[in-house]
């Protein structure tokens, strides 16, 4: 979910290829979509070979590990994501929550199960979001120790200090936005892929026997000969495909064709060449070690492939590439959080727009702080990329399992596939995902528990918020009166009228807003025009302007209105009401309009339906949710808040 939100008033998605150009979109995708998976060669092969070399290593094992890595890229990324999942878009949008809403539209009986799967996938993404910046940037900076003359001159503490400084700068940059510097992301990543592919090609030419790794039987033989130990290697091999979920998550911004083109024409060839080059270099070092009668040592193959002082620009380029990959993950966390808020999975958070031109350029201070703290704890706690690599993979592989389960519901219910076709496609993908998930679960004791703790914490917040909101809504409905009934009562006994328009925010579409009832109870007045407004999030990314507002006239005093938003949009009530009501008798006059918002003070109860501690957690989340005035972009000087006390 690392995408800029499309402008609801902007051009149709299908016209974007023609307007921006295929080459420009493909170049842009290189800097956003492929940053994570594109920086995996820095550490993935090293970690996989390290697992295989614990009891010594022979040439067949290098070929086997490399074969597993290459075929993981082919099966997981190319077959599953590029050829299959990128077809399962929700009006052009992808990602786990977009897939969740698409699955919800196609099934009615399993909506709770679908939402639970989406929530699990979202929670696991945050676990990935904490690890990616820490692991990728640290692994790039560690390349300093491969530069001639710096092997012993740079200490571990200095590596951590440099990494921390880069990450601090990255997170400080978020508040200013990345629109200007973001224009460099695509060209830098293009240079990155050309460089790593070229370096790999040089070593392949020196050791062409490494091309045997393209044959899948080498990987099969490796697994057959290593048993349970092979599963630990597979957990490290999975590092080669982390970041694959970005291919679907960013479809809304770049489109499927540029992403497919970028992967098939640039990224996959570059990754394959680099991994083959690392394997060729390792094979050469193995032959040298055998000839000299010395022990083979697993090393930083990625950086050592570059000759001597050429490693200096390579380290700089790798650092830039990992910063770009980290930025993509942070942006993805922002985008996913906004979607979760709109879908009611998380409480409202403060969202700041950092660009007047790009709606997707947003900044969430709370998410930024939580990610920063988590990233710094991992960097300082683990101390090295090798120690941290074991923590990577559990959350990503779990997300992939969830994605495949949601895809099953989509192809069966929405696309209408037959059972034989569904099983033939989904079952192999699910077994592959479960295989990788099982391999990563084995590494929990090495650090894999970290993303699970993060995901568990986020999952707890989601469950608490969803359950608490349901309880609160049930209480409101039990005390509510229908708007039509209230209108009849007021016609029989009309209160004093005041000029202007009153807009009452309501959580329900039929009941009279609580703020309206409190206004009548305490102020005993009614405005000339009264609008009961409900904000509704639909199961599609963006709502066209023509379908933004639904209005129903109750009588001459009251109108019921529903503002519809997609889960990729940020609500702006004054702007959208003014646009929708720009003509006719209901024309919105900003200086004659007051917004009434109901605000409840919650008190815990031992009989709420939730454990007492969960009541307290929900109340904490409710109290600290972003003010609706800020979230809905309502002018503060036009807002009246009316409070009440509620026991849940």
UniProtKB/TrEMBL annotation:
<dbReference type="GO" id="GO:0005886">
    <property type="term" value="C:plasma membrane"/>
</dbReference>
<feature type="transmembrane region" description="Helical">
    <location>
        <begin position="57"/>
        <end position="77"/>
    </location>
</feature>
<feature type="transmembrane region" description="Helical">
    <location>
        <begin position="389"/>
        <end position="411"/>
    </location>
</feature>
<keyword id="KW-0769">Symport</keyword>
<comment type="similarity">
    <text>Belongs to the HAK/KUP transporter (TC 2.A.72) family.</text>
</comment>
<dbReference type="GO" id="GO:0015079">
    <property type="term" value="F:potassium ion transmembrane transporter activity"/>
</dbReference>
<comment type="function">
    <text>Transport of potassium into the cell. Likely operates as a K(+):H(+) symporter.</text>
</comment>
<dbReference type="GO" id="GO:0015293">
    <property type="term" value="F:symporter activity"/>
</dbReference>
<protein>
    <recommendedName>
        <fullName>Probable potassium transport system protein Kup</fullName>
    </recommendedName>
</protein>
<feature type="transmembrane region" description="Helical">
    <location>
        <begin position="153"/>
        <end position="172"/>
    </location>
</feature>
<feature type="transmembrane region" description="Helical">
    <location>
        <begin position="113"/>
        <end position="141"/>
    </location>
</feature>
<feature type="domain" description="K+ potassium transporter integral membrane">
    <location>
        <begin position="25"/>
        <end position="487"/>
    </location>
</feature>
<dbReference type="InterPro" id="IPR053951">
    <property type="entry name" value="K_trans_N"/>
</dbReference>
<keyword id="KW-0813">Transport</keyword>
<keyword id="KW-1133">Transmembrane helix</keyword>
<feature type="transmembrane region" description="Helical">
    <location>
        <begin position="184"/>
        <end position="204"/>
    </location>
</feature>
<feature type="transmembrane region" description="Helical">
    <location>
        <begin position="312"/>
        <end position="337"/>
    </location>
</feature>
<dbReference type="InterPro" id="IPR023051">
    <property type="entry name" value="Kup"/>
</dbReference>
<dbReference type="InterPro" id="IPR053952">
    <property type="entry name" value="K_trans_C"/>
</dbReference>
<keyword id="KW-0472">Membrane</keyword>
<keyword id="KW-0630">Potassium</keyword>
<keyword id="KW-0812">Transmembrane</keyword>
<feature type="transmembrane region" description="Helical">
    <location>
        <begin position="259"/>
        <end position="277"/>
    </location>
</feature>
<feature type="domain" description="K+ potassium transporter C-terminal">
    <location>
        <begin position="499"/>
        <end position="648"/>
    </location>
</feature>
<dbReference type="InterPro" id="IPR003855">
    <property type="entry name" value="K+_transporter"/>
</dbReference>
<keyword id="KW-0406">Ion transport</keyword>
<keyword id="KW-0997">Cell inner membrane</keyword>
<keyword id="KW-0633">Potassium transport</keyword>
<feature type="transmembrane region" description="Helical">
    <location>
        <begin position="21"/>
        <end position="45"/>
    </location>
</feature>
<feature type="transmembrane region" description="Helical">
    <location>
        <begin position="358"/>
        <end position="383"/>
    </location>
</feature>
<dbReference type="Pfam" id="PF02705">
    <property type="entry name" value="K_trans"/>
</dbReference>
<feature type="transmembrane region" description="Helical">
    <location>
        <begin position="224"/>
        <end position="247"/>
    </location>
</feature>
<dbReference type="Pfam" id="PF22776">
    <property type="entry name" value="K_trans_C"/>
</dbReference>
<feature type="transmembrane region" description="Helical">
    <location>
        <begin position="448"/>
        <end position="466"/>
    </location>
</feature>
<keyword id="KW-1003">Cell membrane</keyword>
<feature type="transmembrane region" description="Helical">
    <location>
        <begin position="423"/>
        <end position="442"/>
    </location>
</feature>
